[in-house]
């Protein structure tokens, strides 16, 4: 097992006030997994990362890295940060400005937990790390003269040169522009995974988490809302918070009207009318209240300028309030009586003529996701 966290609690106390930053957090990750802690500001993800690093001490719980216990409140065990066999990559790069690129990478190897006295092995480790981050030709350049992306590569090279059991990355791309972030996402994932190092990555960026992770842990107010693969978190959110945080604008209150177990279908009634869906693992009964999650990109569209007289399953004629051109797609914002918020659908921009006033939207039953309330 690469990382195991059991019932981790952190309570900050000041005078007579107490704030629970982490509330019984438990999860595990196999060796070599890329795990992302995702959530809004103040959810506890940076606090959790600091606990894993040993920079802050939990109130209670247990942490084990590669089966080595580094914190256990019951046993009174606490391993100092310098002895945990971990590396960190920070948001601010944390490079030494008076050193060259090579000297930055060499520093922990000369002074850290894996201090090396073999010059040849030291040089090989440095050269290998710089080659992996494509900075071999910059080895003798003063570190401050590099671009932001290059400085982040230096910090990554410094981290992997130590061959740690666990690498912790605290929003390392937040200071970079959008295009460079996209490039660095792929590079960090490829390099870290190529080394077989277990990684814990902190971000509040949903797209970043989806693109980089094997496992995503969604946090809210110090507790875990959901753990799953990117596909599960995106398409099968377990709570309304996760659905909203992952960018699903179409959350519709509905009630179960029929459960067809023989065909594996369930029928809901909501402001759109009847919505047919496939039964999920979580059982529902007639009369149950649920929230339907209809993702924008799953809508299919036929455009009509006049009303249609008949409709098929999960087909709805709606007036277009606004059409937003987004280049490769168009967002249609549609009104529906009884909905708290307008419905949003992504369609091929070429399919919608400028004069269209209504749109017939179809949503496949197999794509409907529901959350039992």
Span of the ends, CA to CA: 35 Å
Average pLDDT value? 91
Structural class by sheet pairing and helices: alpha+beta
Largest sheet: 6 strands, mixed
Query: Would you identify the CATH H-level superfamily of the largest domain?
Result: P-loop containing nucleotide triphosphate hydrolases
Write out the strand line-up for the largest beta sheet, numbering strands in chain order.
7-8-9-3-10-11
User: What is the CATH top level name of the largest domain?
Assistant: Alpha Beta
Shape: globular
* Overall strand count: 21
Sequence stretches where pLDDT stays below 50 over 5 or more residues: none
Query: What percent of residues adopt helix (DSSP H or I)?
Result: 10-25%
Rg? 25 Å
CATH topology grouping of the largest domain: Rossmann fold
The number of domains? 3
Give the H and E element order.
EEEHEEEEHHHEHEHEEHHEEEEEEEEEE
> Could you say what the CATH architecture of the largest domain is?
3-Layer(aba) Sandwich
What would you say this structure looks like, in words?
The chain is α+β, with helices and mostly antiparallel strands. The protein has three domains: 241 residues, P-loop containing nucleotide triphosphate hydrolases (Rossmann fold, 3-Layer(aba) Sandwich), CATH 3.40.50; 45 residues; 69 residues, RNA polymerase II/Efflux pump adaptor protein, barrel-sandwich hybrid domain (OB fold (Dihydrolipoamide Acetyltransferase, E2P), Beta Barrel). It contains eight helices and 21 strands. A six-stranded mixed beta sheet has the order 7-8-9-3-10-11, sandwiched between helices. Strands 2-1-4-5-6 form a five-stranded antiparallel beta sheet, with helices on one face. Strand 10 and strand 11 form a beta hairpin. Helix 2 packs across helix 3, helix 2 runs parallel beside helix 4 and helix 3 crosses helix 4. The model has no long low-confidence stretch (mean pLDDT 91).
């Amino acid at each position: 097992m690469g990382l195991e966290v059991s019932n981790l609690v952190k309570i900050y106390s000041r005078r007579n006030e107490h704030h629970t930053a982490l509330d019984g957090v438990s999860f595990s990750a196999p060796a070599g997994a890329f795990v992302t802690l995702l959530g809004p500001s103040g959810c506890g993800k940076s606090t959790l990362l600091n606990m894993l690093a040993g920079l802050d001490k939990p109130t209670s719980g247990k942490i084990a890295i590669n089966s080595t216990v580094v914190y256990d409140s019951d046993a009174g065990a606490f391993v100092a940060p310098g002895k945990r066999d971990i590396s960190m990559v920070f948001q601010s790069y944390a490079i030494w400005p008076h050193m060259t690129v090579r000297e930055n990478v060499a520093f922990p190897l000369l002074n850290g937990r894996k201090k090396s006295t073999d010059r040849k092995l030291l040089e090989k480790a440095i050269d290998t790390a710089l080659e992996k981050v494509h900075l071999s030709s910059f080895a003798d350049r003063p570190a401050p003269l590099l671009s932001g992306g290059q400085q982040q590569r230096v910090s990554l090279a410094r981290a992997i040169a130590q061959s740690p059991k666990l690498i912790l990355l605290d929003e390392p791309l937040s200071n970079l522009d959008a295009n460079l972030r996209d490039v660095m996402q792929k590079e960090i994932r490829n390099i870290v995974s190529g080394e077989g190092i277990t990684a814990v990555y902190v971000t509040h960026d949903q797209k970043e988490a989806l693109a980089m992770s094997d496992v995503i842990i969604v946090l809210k107010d110090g507790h875990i809302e959901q753990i799953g693969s990117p596909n599960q978190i995106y398409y099968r959110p377990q709570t309304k918070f996760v659905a909203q945080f992952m960018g699903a604008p179409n959350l519709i209150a509905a009630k179960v009207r029929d459960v067809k177990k023989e065909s594996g279908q369930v029928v809901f009634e909501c402001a759109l009318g009847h919505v047919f869906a496939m039964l999920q693992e979580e059982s529902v009964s007639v009369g149950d209240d649920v929230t339907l999650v209809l993702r924008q990109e799953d809508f299919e569209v036929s455009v009509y300028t006049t009303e249609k007289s008949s409709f098929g399953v999960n087909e709805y004629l709606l007036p277009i309030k606004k059409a937003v051109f987004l280049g490769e797609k168009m967002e249609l914002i549609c009104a529906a009586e009884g909905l708290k918020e307008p419905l949003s659908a992504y369609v091929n921009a070429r399919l919608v003529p400028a004069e269209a006033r209504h749109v017939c939207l179809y949503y496949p039953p197999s794509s409907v996701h529901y959350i039992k309330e």
